[in-house]
């Protein structure tokens, strides 16, 4: 297909946007304009469970559209294109008028699109599944226009190919810090990366082992608990699990046990929201004589300054008081607190302090 100047320029901006997360905010409206769409929707979908992990709408700033956004979480299960795509994961494209069963105009999802978005037809391009995930871009065509033209759909498929290529660069899992003993697990729980120190532990079956490409503990009871924690961490996007930890005994003779920390890892697909990429697991020797707060620093993988801020909050200080004690500004203390929230998958100080209490109790 010959490219006009406007389409070529838009494709160029797609690749430029991968280096600037805020620029993705402008891509949705530009794609809508290029395709004559009324609404665009970018998603990350778990095809096996037919559910969305992340969603980003683009459309007009009006009341019906806003109401449509509020309705959608309750209606997505009846979306015929989502159901069809989950059953045909390699088709890469579907259209509403080819996937709606029965009378088209009376289908509830068609009626909802008309009422909320003034769109009678919608089209979805989606990527081949990778680790059970697929990413998609859908466009909803104004009702007055009816079905999209073949030329519009050719442009749509071409644009999505470039959007998906550019966005996947952003989806790479965080690099594994090679310091200390650590492994990276993919979404299926298989070991995808391993530091030299971790390789030594696993090769010697020093408390932890590698079994069929997965991380396990040598002792059956600890292996069972580790498996449970891994299952929770691998499904963190749904259950809200943050960092967790357990103690794993080693070879005896007074050798300190391993303090094993599990942290879900996330990356961003094209600015539409976090997508879980797997779990990073680290372990260090656990020594009960650590000074106050040091165990939390290890478990939560905090920087020294973040650990100081958290220790003061746990001791009962307000954020302002903690900032004063540390000789930093309130804004700087808030930056550290936001970093702690991100590492612990919490959003409020009360929730963070409850997590710390649970971790401290588990270490007694």
What does this structure look like?
With 364 residues, this protein is α+β, with helices and mostly antiparallel strands. It has three domains: 5-170, Transcription factor LuxR-like, autoinducer-binding domain (Beta-Lactamase); 173-286, PAS domain (Beta-Lactamase, 2-Layer Sandwich); 290-364, Arc Repressor Mutant, subunit A (Orthogonal Bundle). 45% of the residues lie in helices and 23% in strands. The protein has a five-stranded antiparallel beta sheet with strand order 2-1-5-4-3, with helices on both faces. The chain is elongated and about 75 Å long.
Q: Kindly state the number of beta strands.
A: 12
Q: Uncertain runs with pLDDT below 50, 5 residues or more?
A: none
Task: Write out the CATH superfamily name of the largest domain.
Answer: Transcription factor LuxR-like, autoinducer-binding domain
Rg (CA only): 24 Å
Mean pLDDT: 83
Instruction: Based on the coordinates given, report the CATH architecture of the largest domain.
Output: 2-Layer Sandwich
**Alpha-carbon distance between the two ends:** 67 Å
- Assigned CATH class of the largest domain: Alpha Beta
Given the helix and strand composition, which structural class is it? alpha+beta
**Structural shape:** elongated
Instruction: Work out the helicity level.
Output: 40-55%
What is the CATH topology descriptor of the largest domain? Beta-Lactamase
| Total count of helical runs of at least 4 residues | 15
Residues in β-strands, percent: 15-25%
How are the strands of the biggest sheet laid out side by side? 2-1-5-4-3
Largest sheet: 5 strands, antiparallel
